[in-house]
Amino acid sequence: MANLSTKVKLYLEANSKVWDDTKVFLQNDGAGDYIKTFTYDGLAEPTADQIASYETAGNTAETLSGVLHTRASEYPSIADQLDKIYHDGVDEWKKVIKKVKDDNPKE
Prior knowledge:
Elements: H1 4-14, E1 24-28, E2 33-38, H2 48-52, H3 55-74, H4 78-88, H5 90-103
Antiparallel strand pairs: 1-2
Helix pairs in contact: 4-5
């Protein structure tokens, strides 16, 4: 299940807005996350049905974010990548990068 913050961000993006901590505040009082304040000019607070409509897209976004985070942690440092290119050439460097990508596919 996608986080409320992810679904609200998608709602904002769909309405040409960006997340702004001064305009939206989420809270959890023990019964689950909810929108405590929402003060975007020209945009109403999303209804429960509108938020629910972003569940699939939210799951996809969160999965992609996890994959990209994993990839970033598994890539060699920039210094090591440059060293690989210098000593072994671009084709060998590409193999290293491709392995990380193949081990952590986006889909």
